[in-house]
Design a protein that fits this description.
13-stranded mixed sheet, five-stranded antiparallel sheet, 529 residues, 2% helix, single chain
């Protein structure tokens, strides 16, 4: 959640659930052995009275969206999205502060800034919504940032360090370190929406499960609030192996919050927490759980001890994102004291207890499953659609009407930004078409006609992609530093026939129109069998 963004785009939330063994007040009991996977459980949890660990000193201040990790020494380490203080942070909205406790929250170490945005890069505005794992001697931090000055159009980024107070190396697109910062998961849809962010990470069976909030526009024009998942190999090159799985929690209300996921080894269950009706008097803690990390069900939570006006919750785990049942577990969240107050939030730290019961009734076990938003209502896609359209006269249909004198146009991006990475050319736009056949072997793209002044609006960098649901897209090929010298149609071969329902061009670096505006403009797009 970027605190720059308010009201409609305040932050998105997602759900997830918690499942663990019953009976931990402060004296937790351990569950011996490992419960065999394949069993079915009914999960519930309860929130106990806790303590306020942060109170703003003035009219504003916050520590929200924590990520909390028990290290090998039993110390609980925590990072928070925090309001920056000091002239050195004048260019940004949020930093990540660090503190730890060795006595389950009774006493905390002094706080310090662990990660601040790198000025002169994509993330210069903000780093927020942290999620940490510890892998092969490195802390890996995942977080939200954006190139958009209003806090929209967010992406998920990552950094790593050998300790919380050492230098954090950013993912640069090919490896770690340097002065270039690139996302590990990119939003790439309509720029007027929140985008993606609020990551949560778990390692299970050598795979890295990266969950994130998606709040944007689907191909059917519907704006959704979802939790999505991408999975990669659990090693330092995980960004290069990430592959989108898709939506794991859909059909959420706009005021359901971000989802923090953990894994309970003793039961083979993915668990996690979120908040619903966030920042309101009706706010509550909500849970989901899953046996495979992909299909989630809602669980019951007794949260009468939780504060009102709460939001952006996190739950404790270890360096792999697992929950150890031999230790007390806690949730932590931000809340407003006495009513809604943007940017002035206390932070609450509370123990959570769990109950898991084996279920033998198949009908009971199958209920309360989370619904998933379809890419298109009834599975019926339009013949063409786009992330944005400049007007009804420059709609996606103009790109398939067979008339070279007309053309599709996205909205323009007249953005100067605070550095070269925040220019309008870095906003993604796309034009997609429905495949009338079962497969295609090439895409033919005709640039906007040259009327004597040159070819305008063709992207400088782009990917050709396919999809079978209009939600998850797979890349066929990518092109960088692409130039066109004429308006003649260009055939891009796929190298083989690809069976898919939909294909698109995704512009990752926009070209300019005759007025110097960064924009995507295409006269015609078609597929070859």
């Amino acid at each position: 959640m970027n605190t720059k963004t308010k009201t409609v785009i305040m932050c998105v939330a997602c759900g997830l659930c918690l499942a663990l063994a019953a009976g931990l007040l402060c004296g937790f009991f351990a569950v011996s052995g490992t419960v065999r996977r394949g069993k079915t459980y009914e999960v519930s949890a309860a929130i106990r009275e806790g303590q306020t660990i942060y109170v703003p000193r003035g009219d504003s201040g916050y520590r929200y969206g924590p990520t909390m990790m028990y290290n090998e020494n039993g110390t609980l380490e925590a990072w928070f999205s925090s309001l920056p203080e000091g002239a050195q942070y004048a260019h940004c909205w949020d930093v990540l502060t660090y503190r730890s406790t060795s006595d389950y929250g009774e006493h905390w170490t002094d706080e310090y800034v662990s990660i601040a945005p790198l000025d002169g890069t994509e993330e210069a505005f903000s780093v927020c919504d942290p999620a940490v794992i510890f892998m092969d001697g490195w802390y890996y931090m995942f977080y939200t940032s954006t190139i958009e000055a209003e806090g929209r159009y967010n992406n998920v980024y990552a950094a790593r360090a050998v300790s919380p107070d050492s230098v954090w190396e950013r993912w640069n697109g090919n490896g770690w370190g340097g002065n270039v910062v690139k996302p590990v998961v990119t939003y790439g849809s309509n720029a007027l929406h929140y985008g993606i962010g609020e990551p949560s990470v778990v390692i299970v069976d050598g795979k890295l499960y990266l969950y994130y909030t998606y709040k944007g526009m689907l191909g059917n024009g519907r704006v959704v609030n979802q939790t999505r998942l991408t999975i990669g190999d659990a090693n330092e090159n995980f960004p290069l192996t990430l592959r989108e799985y898709g939506v794991v929690v859909g059909d959420k209300e706009s005021d359901e919050d971000s989802l923090d996921v953990k894994y309970a080894d003793d039961y083979g269950i993915f668990i996690g927490v979120t908040t619903d009706k966030r920042m309101s008097y009706r706010s509550r803690i909500k849970m989901y759980y899953s046996y495979d990390g992909k299909n989630f069900k809602e669980a019951e939570v007794e949260d009468s001890a939780a504060k009102k006006y709460l939001h952006n919750i996190g739950i404790t785990g270890d360096g792999q994102g697992h929950i150890d049942l031999s230790k007390p577990q806690f949730v932590c969240y931000a809340y407003s004291e006495g009513g809604f107050a943007w940017g002035k939030w206390n932070t609450e730290f509370q123990q959570i207890t769990f109950s898991i019961k084996e279920v033998f009734d198949a009908d009971k076990a199958a209920n309360r499953r989370v619904t998933i938003d379809p890419g298109f209502e009834g599975g019926k896609a339009p013949p063409a659609w786009a992330m944005s359209e400049a007007s009804q006269y420059r709609s996606a249909y103009e790109g398939i009407d067979g008339d070279r004198s007309t053309f599709y146009s996205s909205v323009g991006h007249n953005v100067t930004g605070i550095n070269e990475y925040h220019l309008g050319k870095w906003y993604n736009e796309s034009l997609a078409v429905k495949n009338a056949r079962s497969s295609a072997k090439a895409m033919v793209i005709a640039p906007r006609l040259d009327n004597g002044n040159g070819v305008f609006g063709f992207p400088k960098a782009f990917s050709l992609q396919y999809s079978n649901d209009g939600v998850i897209w797979r890349t066929i090929s990518s092109y960088d530093d692409y130039t066109v010298s004429s308006d003649a149609p260009i055939t891009f071969s796929f190298g083989k026939k690809i069976k898919a329902k939909y294909f698109r061009i995704l512009a990752t670096e926009l070209g300019q129109d005759e007025f110097g505006t960064y924009i995507l403009q295409i006269s015609e797009i078609s597929l070859k069998k």
